[in-house]
Request: fold
Amino acid sequence: MTAIFPTVFRYQFLRWLACLGMAWVLVSASGCAMVGSMANVMASSTANLFSGPPGPSFLDWKAMTLVAAPDVNQNSPLALDLVFVRDSAALDKLLTMPAAKWFASKDEILKTYPNALTIKSWELVPQQVLQLSEEALGSPRVAGMVLFADYLAPGDHRAQLPLGKVSFLVDLGARSFSFKTKPL
Reply:
């Protein structure tokens, strides 16, 4: 019996040792790939930091509150478009465009930049308050955000919103709008 036990024990021990060795090889190989991937990410991030404009990044915000004044848009409903822009060329184009032109040529612009823009639209009436959560707005990857308001009064009625960790309060007045940010 003593001669059989060590042989059985030795067989199980060698099998266990072989499994342990295989596990070590797999962990080592995946660790090397992970370290290599991390090195590539760090290198490309560092290179991007010093060469050219930053690429799109994910939004990190919590809420937006839209507050329409009693006499908003000269007592008329006001259309708003929040444009999430993924392409820096499209962002540059939108930042030179007044809101009246945006609303008149929105379909054409969407055809020109089919994968670069995502639009959230609302229409507010005087004295309306609209609370928009992070879930309602989403957290897309963007190069920038532009808010357009379709006022009856002349003017640009456009603002680029910051991308940092903020919540927004947009005051919609009789002839124009303004916004405030609150850091999180």
